[in-house]
UniProtKB/TrEMBL annotation:
A GO CC term assigned to this protein in UniProt: cytoplasm
First and last residue of the signal peptide: none
Stated name of the protein: Probable phosphoglycerate mutase
Entry keyword Isomerase: yes
InterPro entries: His_Pase_superF_clade-1, His_PPase_superfam, PG/BPGM_mutase_AS, PGM_Phosphatase
Keyword annotations from UniProtKB, A to Z: Glycolysis, Isomerase
Sample GO molecular function, one term: phosphatase activity
Binding site for substrate: 8-15, 58
Listed SMART domains: PGAM
One Pfam family this sequence matches: His_Phos_1
Keyword Isomerase carried by entry: yes
Active-site residues, as the UniProt record annotates them: 9, 82
Amino acid sequence: MTTLYITRHGETEWNIQSRFQGWKNSPLTELGVKQAESLRKRMSTVPLNKIYASPTERAAKTAEIIRGDRDIEIIHDIDLREMGFGNWEGLTYDEIKSLNEAELNNLIYHPSKYIPDMGEDYKTFTARIIGAVDRIILNHPNESVLIVTHGISLKVMLSYFNSLDLDEIHNLPIVGQASLTQVNINKDEFQVILTGDTQHYDF
């Protein structure tokens, strides 16, 4: 059995400001660091063969905090990046709403209809994320791996594990920062054990 532990990066400055981050970055807040540290404590006794992380700074930093002083390799996989929002990156939710409310609505509620403004469409994005997950599973039979990624990236993973259609993605919540999702894979079958669990928060 292969076990995937999956988390989202800690809270960032742009999260607080409701800004779309995508491929751009903003630093972890003090709370974001504490969130990652609390997950480090929870994972400290969990055997891990490898850590895979989005190379975007907020995710890479979260991965480093969770690893702590353990001797575990971190592999930065570009395919684990967040969805690319193109010209929307750095803008607030309200600013995007004023520019193109219809497409913002499609992004959230009608993924198959979403047409990006110089960013990624859902077909391209989901193929990238699912491809990364499949590759990690293939490379780690009967091992345990931690994946550090992003909010919508994790939603796409959960839709894959739960066999949901593209337009059902919006039914899934964006899990909390540095929360824990666990998926066991046995003979190509997914068993979701935890989704966005935050019982380790100690602040």
